[in-house]
Amino acid sequence: MSNNGGIRITGRYNSAPPTTNLLMQPFELPEFEAFPSEPESDAAPRAAPGQLPLSVQRVDMCLLTNKKNHNTSAYNIQNLVVRRGQEFIMKVTFSRPLTQTDDFQVEFMIGSKPLASENTLVVVTFGSRQGGPWSGRVVEAQGQMLTLGITPAARAIVGKFSSYVAIATANGIQRTRSDATTDLYLLFNAWAKDDAVFYPDEAGRKEYVLNDHGMIYQGSIETADSVTHRSWDYGQFERGVLDACIYILDVSKMPITDRSDIIKVVRKGSAMINVQDDNGMLVGNWSNDYSMGTPPTAWTGSVSILLQYASTGVPVCYAQCWVYAGVFNTFLRCLGIPARVVTNFISAHDNNGSLTTNLVFNSDGSLDTEDTKDSIWNFHCWNEAYMVRVDLPPDLGGWQVVDATPQETSDGYFRCGPASVVAIKEGLLCHPFDLNFVFAEVNSVVVSSIKDRYGTLTKFKEDKNYVGKAIYTKAINSTAYEDITITYKYPEGSAEDSMTMARAQEYTSESIQPKLPKAWLLVKMSAAQVQLGQDVNLAVVFTNQSDVSQTVRAHLTGSVIYYTGVRASNPFKNLDFSVTVGGLQEKSTALRITAQEYLANRGSLVSLSFVVSGRSGDQSVSARQVVSLQTPELTVTVSGTPRVAQQMFVTVSFTSPFSFALRDVIVSMEGSGLISPKQRSYSTIAPGSKITWKESCIPQVTGLRHITASLDCSDLRGVTGFADINITK
Description:
Protein name: protein-glutamine gamma-glutamyltransferase
Structural class: mainly beta
Enzyme class: transferase
Cofactor: Ca(2+)
CATH class of the largest domain: Alpha Beta
InterPro entries: Ig-like_fold (IPR013783), Ig_E-set (IPR014756), Papain-like_cys_pep_sf (IPR038765), Transglutaminase (IPR050779), Transglutaminase-like (IPR002931), Transglutaminase-like_sf (IPR036985), Transglutaminase_animal (IPR023608), Transglutaminase_C (IPR008958)
Family: Belongs to the transglutaminase superfamily. Transglutaminase family.
């Protein structure tokens, strides 16, 4: 009987599969390993008569050359970092020049129980003695020094390897001692055509693998110009981050051998970024009470989160969807996987896989929160990872949705994906993984029903075009967004769109519902963009398509909501009103909501939800309008000489435009390669007053760098700012 972390494995394995790369390294290859049946005491280096025995004097991993060739120079780490499926070089200096009778090999080991049969012990041979999954060649011989070229297999295990040089003696193998300086990290390779993550475009590889800064889009698409952006510091090259990403896989007890498989790695990462069911990294919190941790709106990047988790082993508080997506993006890019953060505006959360989102209204027109189980998020952030899907038809590879926000379980864990974006667009929901759920997020039909006093539901509206209004990601070489909606869905109302929906319906258990009779009463609602603290002006338009004048008894409900669509408090507005609309006419009603009505109830990422419903005769109508209240931005400026190793200064300033004081304010800033994460607290920012915070920094790397800053308190969430600066040598 064996035991692995308290798990009994009797009858399942001869021994537990290794699951640790960094957490422990109890195994080292012995310095001498006898050939079978040969006693170690007789060991002697093999040499021709009169020739000195061969030994290794020095091993040079050629860090500068290899890191440049493998696009890994940015990793702030002392060891070699290379990508699989691509040759790297190492120089070995022996005690004397080699002869034809000399025989040596290079060995690489990962995990606690290295075995050649599982590719966790890889032997690289040279000359006529070729074999093994990794290839080797002698690039150059100069006296006692050999330059060796080694090419890891394109499906090699990803992680940290120990390396040894071994010389054949008369009776066995004599190895170099274990040396931490010759350990190497092996990553996925978006530049190698045989790697499952090969990305065919160089500009895309620079953006989706090498860019350590991004923009995450938020807000609401319903109100003109109300989409906002949040600068995010991915920091995948910062010191300790690569080890933290491998640590995540170790904590998950993912078998070492599975870490060559891109599908298994992203699926495990999706589960581990959240804390649910596996002691993962981030604790979600949508309550607006963040007293036991850091508010999700206060984070400026991934580095602090990853390093805190790796150093303590304790889940980090708190996250919401953009935090999960930002950290997951760091994890993916750090391991070499092309990845990007995507925002779906008007995102449905379908609880039962029916591809419909059901909204239930009471007879007075208010939303029934007890019977309405589904929700519609103003926006939802997830990730896309680029890969070949060997488990699917060939044309379903490319971008895959992967989501770490814990919403629904997938094979028993809170995770999502990889779900083929092409399969989503075509409605091919028969394939793995989680295609039904993601398809509903962008295509769900919103069904509105009214409940009478007996609890009977009567469907009165069906909206096929409300969900998935727009899908954005950061554009290549720009801080602007790229609209990628067309990659997920055909244009609304097109023949292809109808075919997709029909095809998707075939893969669900939901029966096709009869069509509703054509409505003769319609309602629409709109609002202009509004700053926090300003009044909201709503325009409600009723359209009467009958030829008889109609009087509509209407009800307006106004609530502060979280961006997930969940109400943050009791409605602050309940208004009954009547509108008479002439035959074949429309009537617009202006409704004004004062700032005083909603300010007392403002919540996280302040959004207001207005639902108007009406009834005339046998006709019921409803419309929903979300108003994302805009907040001021931080001003971030940089001064000094923008040069490596030269002192510079970063200044963050903010002037409060509000009539109320801000209390217990936290201001944060960070910028990979420029300034480490920092925070400053302010007990009070009085109405109309200004704060200024200046910090010094010394740039460590050249190129375009970014400073990200945030201001956060219980009275005001989601205030951000950023600055770009080009650092020279």
